[in-house]
Design goal:
heterodimer, A: 115 residues, mainly beta, 7-stranded mixed beta sheet, 11 strands, 0% helix, B: 6-stranded mixed beta sheet
Chain lengths: 115, 107
Amino acid sequence: DTGVSQNPRHKITKRGQNVTFRCDPISEHNRLYWYRQTLGQGPEFLTYFQNEAQLEKSRLLSDRFSAERPKGSFSTLEIQRTEQGDSAMYLCASSLPTDRGNEQFFGPGTRLTVL
Amino acid sequence: GESVGLHLPTLSVQEGDNSIINCAYSNSASDYFIWYKQESGKGPQFIIDIRSNMDIRQGQRVTVLLNKTVKHLSLQIAATQPGDSAVYFCAENTVSFGTGTQLKVEL
């Protein structure tokens, strides 16, 4: 257990439905990242926050995807009008960058299946 | 648990041997690199990092080598153990992950 939790662990939904995932980072970490991972691939960066500010979004991130971190603690990732291509593992990570480096701690992920 | 290693390059080693996993990166301006280990059904786990002003960094049983001239990174694992079996990813500038290498340790 890294200290980063994600809920739900699994989500099955029908195409066209909206889904929302939650990530609870390590409490003192100011950075929070979202990634998507499909089988056989490395994690693909989606977006990251520093405290409550969303500082970067991947150009690959569809406008159907939105993320929030309203109080600089937990974060939510919403996918609207889901498509079968959205099926993947969604990973959250948190970190507290220092001069020594930026070690990310990953949660166990939310597995999304779109039927 | 689910497999993260489908269709990945695979390195098979005997228990006790040393392992070398390689990674080519794309951005010559990258200045920070990380190696992660990912076991089935789990998120990636940090192993070791290195900044571009270094050529080598050592941890416990692991060494990372950085060759900026050819944009190449390697992870060396000494005395490989069955628990080292996993998929290994390099990442540049924190968020850009490579495709990974499956390490299989044979008894």
